[in-house]
Amino acid sequence: MKQDRVVPLYRADGFPTPLTGAKAQALARLHGAGHSVPDGVCVTSRWFGEVSSRTDIGRSIEHNLRDLGAIPTGTGRSLELIRRALTRTPWPDDLVAEVSEAARRLLAAGPVMVRSSVPVEDGAGLSFAGVFESEGPLESVPEVLAALARCWAALYSARVLSYARGQLPGEYAAFLHSWVRPDAHGVLFTRDPVTHADGPITDVAWGSATDTTSGRASAGRVALTAGDGDSGVTLPRRLRDALNSLARQGERLFGHPLDIEWVWSDGRLHTLQARPITHDTATRAPTAAAWWPDSEVGALHDADLGLCRRRFEGALMKHIWAARGTGTVAPLADLALHLKRGHDRNPLDDPAFCAAHIGEIVPAEASGFSAVLSDGTVVIEAFPAGLPGIKEGGLVPSVLTVTPAGQVAREHIATFERRCRVEPGEGWWWHPEETPPYTFDRSDAEILDIARVTRALCESLGEARVEWYAGDDGAMVRDVSLEGGRLDAPSSPGGQLISAGVASGTVLSLPDLGELDEAARALEVSVVGSGMDNAAVMADARITAAVDAVGRAEDVIVVAEYPSAGLIPLVDLAAGFVFQRGNLLCHTAIVPRERGVPAIVSPGAARLRDGMAVEISPAGVTVLSDREQTC
User: Fold this and answer.
1) What sections of 69-194 are H helices per DSSP?
2) DSSP states of 602-620
3) CA distances (Å), 581 to each of 240, 272, 288, 569, 599, in order?
4) What is the pTM of this model?
5) Which residue positions in the chain have pLDDT lower than 50?
6) pLDDT per residue over 402-447, tens digit each?
7) Cβ atoms of 68 and 78 closer than 8 Å
8) Residue 314's closest CA among 70, 539, 464, 537?
9) 304 SS3 class
10) Which run of H or E residues covers position 249?
């Protein structure tokens, strides 16, 4: 029925929650009670459902959700394919016309915001605060339609999957509303979410209201019933009175404490969102005796992200946690102290979210990667601990193997010209220093211990790639990545095989990886997602220049010095990769294997030139010409 696909925002509470979502319904109730809510329209789940069912989007979602989780490292790929379908598939003309007509009406009065109203959002149990996306202010119909697609696509993200404990919401809804230019803005809690004391408390900032919800604003805190407090923030009397009134009437209207997003503009208070405070049962800041063990890190997803949202979207991808809030690296014994300091700096947020990923600095002699190969051999790639370039494959490691019978072999002992000294203190602890050339070998006892740990992890987790530290003949696990299957033998007749397969195409050389390395470090491009769906990554000129170069032709074989993390956004565009040097287990090497894109380290890579027709396979790199030759 057309009348329930796009409806006025102020009528959203007249429809079932699965259709318009609790966020839109709350604004409709506040509007009905006489509070100022921006003019808007709700694009219901029925509209999105019809777009899905009448295009290939529905089939893409069904197909990729079916595969979700079947291969641990394939989760990101499945979600990314859904997001691409949502943002690239044309929508039916009649459905586009409905939203365009509504958007044009709103745009006649000024810029427009696009905000999610997912039916599971703003519930009494899980609020999904900061998990879904909003965009704006937008100034044209095409901008609104594109933002609507991106916000819908954000439903299928690792962030949502993680927060929802692996259960993605089945329906999506959103609304458009007129943008309100803020003189002041903030989040109002009708009761203190930390102490649970009666009486409203608010944070307040000036500038973009988007900064408040993303955690980027520098906000002052005000207890509205006790004066301006110690924050140094003075509120205009009319604003203070309006916030107190909104807090009282809001609790009376909804019957429970509220978390309200507000904007003060031209002497008038506007409400942008109202949801239940879900912090009442949140875990308090742990003491040293009750630190979060790795097995319980998932419990952190139960808490709202609040003002710390941006920081923890990235931090929640790891397995070791420490305190944040002072900007220093915290020794293990001081974690509880630093956690409390982080809480003191952010008392409006849930104390559980004063935790973050630490730098994992261990004063070890060696670090590296290990995995169990398809023939049962453990392959170990070892480096002097702390050297830059280890994860990116820019360094050639010492390669050590241990057979199923426990026999140690040294396949390659590398030479290095730098070591790292460790200086505990603020920031990064590793300090590389130039040294005379030296060979880097490890003891049999250490090699066997790394192999033991690697086999144990593979037996319990599946096909694991282990990142480790080692010293004093022992190993410590730093991180574990799961792959879809056991790796092939560590070498092939044509060189070091990174990702199996056969591909042919035209050579494109990327001789200088320095800028891509810098971009990858600055933008944190990693194995978690390819980066192509990350707006910040794809807005970087260094990345987009490489993407454009590969995208101009079909069946491109990228030739580069080593597997830089800056090449990860190219994996879905290239037919294959050839490297002059690199290693089987570096971070970047995981992505071609996950995507099924052939990649090899070939001794003849430096002889390949742009425009050559080549084929890569486990046998090596073959130049396709009148006379075939293998590099």
Assistant:
1) 75-88, 93-107, 141-153, 158-163
2) -TTGGG--TT-EEEEETTE
3) 64, 54, 45, 20, 11
4) 0.53
5) 1, 72-73, 209-218, 228-231, 279-333, 335-336, 338-339, 342-360, 425-428, 529, 626-629
6) 999 999 999 889 999 998 876 654 444 567 889 999 999 999 999 9
7) yes
8) 537
9) coil
10) helix 237-254
The answer to whether the Cα torsion of 436, 439, 445, 447 is positive or negative is positive
In Å, what is the CA distance from 511 to each residue of 47, 542, 563, 566? 48, 14, 12, 13
**What is the distance between the alpha carbons of residues 628 and 631, in angstroms, rounded to a whole number?**
10
Find tokens 């074989």 and name the residue. Answer: 557
Whether the Cβ atoms of residue 212 and residue 185 lie closer than 8 Å to each other: yes
Query: Which of the 8 DSSP states describes residue 5?
Result: T
**Residue with the two structure tokens 């089987």:** 584
Residue whose C-alpha is closest to residue 221's, from 206, 231, 234, 236: 231
Distance in angstroms (rounded) separating the CA atoms of residues 599 and 512? 19
Q: Per residue in 304-355, pLDDT tens?
A: 334 333 433 333 332 223 333 333 444 444 544 544 554 444 333 333 333 3
Which residues have CB under 8 Å from 143's CB, separation 6+?
Answer: none
Which pair of tokens denotes residue 87?
Answer: 């943002």
Structure tokens at 373: 């190969």
What are 323's two structure tokens?
A: 């305190």
What residues contact 83, with CB distance under 8 A and at least 6 apart? 153, 154, 156, 157, 533
Which contacts (CB < 8 Å, 24+ apart) does range 513-516 have?
513/560, 513/561, 513/562, 513/564, 513/566, 513/567, 515/542, 515/566, 516/542, 516/543, 516/546, 516/564, 516/565, 516/566, 516/567
Adjacent-strand bridge partners of 111: none
